[in-house]
Specification:
Length: 187
Amino acid sequence: MSGERVEADVNELVERSRLGDRAAFGELARLHQHEVYTLAVRLVGDRTLAADVTQEALVRAWRAIGRFRGDAAFSTWIYRITANVAWTLKGRAVRQSTYDLDQMIRQPHADSRGDPEIAGERAELRATLKAALATLPKHQRSIVVLKDVYGWSHKEIADSLSISVAASKVRLHRAHLKLRELLRDVV
């Protein structure tokens, strides 16, 4: 199916959803749930919390679908809702957090298809990068994830976060500088 056809189908589902069609919104949710969940995992860094973020984001999207104006793509709109929910729930989780001893002492497993030493180095590098990303303020971390992981343009990021393109570029530059400083001794 071509991209244009899929976009037309999404637009039709959005219109039907705006008129209160629950089945149409259910199909929209089904089409976007994987991307919403993946974004949530990358923003909150925890699969269980990401599942909660996904569910809450989809519920909020259903409640707000009547106010969706179509100024941006539906996917951009739902990603923005997801980012907002992620920061809300992550903040709540941090305030209520407890330490899981098993998770703290668990060692990364070797990749059975390759060299265990390389797999270990990759796991260590991923953990280091994840920790460095976690130190960034959320407005910088969001832009790093959206630009460097998802490949969004600065225009898409600006529209999604209600900031200017220049602000998006500046925040990304500052985030990269901070990450470079944090990771200087690693690479």
